[in-house]
Every structure is written in structure tokens, then in C-alpha cells.
Design goal:
This protein is an alpha/beta fold. It has helices at about 50, 60-70, 85-90, 95-100, 125-145, 160-165, 175-185, 195-200, 215-225, and strands spanning about 15-25, 25-35, 55-60, 75-80, 105, 150-155, 190. It contains nine helices and seven strands; from the N terminus they run ββαβαβααβαβααβαα.
Length: about 230
């Protein structure tokens, strides 16, 4: 039986639009959120590049935003708009392994919380559990080939109030982060709580209320650099 890919994905603009659901080569209408987030450019000369030269940033469109900032080398980033853990298991494990990083900073969950169904088209009753289970599988597949890699799990970042009103699924972010911290302990990974960044800085979101301005990425790397020393 061919896998039916039909996933409601968050890629940024907090407005549901029509998209395609692929099933055996045919396209059917589905709901998808599109990304129109813009990221301000920063200098190509980055002091962070040598710090993270043996690291990999692995995640969704929030991680992908690092590419625009040019704070790290593009080769150190594997990220896509709308990426969820279930799809990362199928599409990205080999890519990650090929880079042979010493450190992997993983950032998933924002899109997972919006998934109405799994990759077989079955409704998801508990998105937090579904995602954390897949997160665990993803980590284990990576560790099978890279047993000595250091894995760091980044907490799911908050969304703006307007986004929470339109997508109440995000009320589970705190619950998700609790489970993510438990997963990190079980997998002997580091859990990195990003909430202090947002407690001290209230205007980091881009216009869509999900993605971030350039300043966020500098603050992020400042926090993460202690994990690679």
C-alpha cells in the first residue's frame, strides 16, 4: 500500500491556504499554511562559523532561517519549510549521517503540533505524544550510525498571541517541551531551554508571529556555543 502523504504543516504565515496532497502520483486538495516570513541579512563574516564548524543544525523553517543570516556555513544546516519529525525520519537521516557532525542541534515540534493526521492519513489523537515518539525514533536512527555524536534538543519556541488565537494547538507548546526534556534525558541528549531568550527580549518575532528576526539567531548561537566547548 502506497503511503498517503497528507499533513497539515506550519510554514509560517498563519493563514490556511489550499495545497496538494500527493497519493500515488495524483494531487488532491489539502490544507497547508504557507510561509512568507522574511529574515534580515547579516554580515557574511561570522565569528560563529569556526565555533560551529563541526556542528549540524537540523530542523524546520525556523532553523532554515539561519541560512539567510549567514552566521554559519550552509553545509552545517539541514532544514526545510514544514518539516515534521515523521518526514525527517524518512527523508533526512542519511543526509545527517553523511555530514558526520560532532554535534547535532535538533529543532522540531512547531509543525508537528499542527498535524491533523499521520503519513498514512490516520487522525492523530495526541500530537504531542505522536511527535515525541517520532522524535525518539529519529534520534535512535541517527545514533545507530553516529553513536558518538552529541545531540542537543532545542525547546519549541513560543508563538505570538495572534497565532495562538488562530491555532490553539500551540497551547500545547509547554507540554511538548516538558516531554522533550524527558526525551533528552532518556536519550542521553542535552535539552536546551530557549525560554530565557524570550523572557528578556519581547520583540523577536517576524510579522507572521512564528518565525524570527535576525537578532534572534545571534542570541540563539550565543546560547548554544557553550554546548560545543
Amino acid at each position: 500500500m502506497l503511503k498517503k502523504v497528507c499533513v497539515c504543516l506550519l510554514t509560517g504565515a498563519v493563514a490556511l491556504t489550499s495545497a496538494a496532497c500527493v497519493n500515488n502520483g495524483t494531487e488532491k486538495p489539502s490544507n497547508k499554511v504557507t510561509q512568507n516570513a522574511t529574515h534580515e541579512k547579516t554580515s557574511k563574516d561570522s565569528a560563529y562559523k569556526p565555533i560551529f564548524k563541526n556542528s549540524l543544525f537540523f530542523g524546520d523553517s525556523i532553523t532554515e532561517g539561519m541560512i539567510d543570516q549567514e552566521l554559519t556555513e550552509d553545509k552545517n544546516i539541514i532544514a526545510d519549510k514544514g518539516k515534521v519529525t515523521a518526514i525527517a525520519i524518512e527523508e533526512d537521516v542519511n543526509k545527517v549521517i553523511e555530514t558526520k557532525p560532532e554535534h547535532i542541534f535538533m529543532s522540531f515540534g512547531t509543525n508537528d503540533l499542527l498535524m491533523p493526521m499521520d503519513l498514512e492519513g490516520k487522525p492523530i489523537e495526541n500530537p504531542v505524544k505522536f511527535s515525541i515518539d517520532n522524535y525518539s525514533k529519529l534520534i535512535q536512527k541517527i545514533k545507530e550510525k553516529l553513536p558518538n555524536v552529541s545531540i542537543h534538543l532545542l525547546s519549541v519556541t513560543p508563538v505570538a498571541d495572534k497565532v495562538l488565537q488562530e491555532h490553539p494547538q500551540y497551547k500545547h507548546i509547554d507540554e511538548y517541551n516538558v516531554k522533550l526534556k524527558e526525551l533528552a534525558k532518556a536519550e542521553k541528549a542535552e535539552y536546551i531551554d530557549l525560554s530565557p531568550i524570550f523572557e528578556k527580549n519581547k520583540d523577536l518575532h517576524d510579522q507572521d508571529g512564528v518565525h524570527f528576526k535576525a537578532d534572534y539567531y545571534k542570541m540563539l548561537l550565543e546560547q548554544l556555543k557553550g554546548s560545543v566547548k
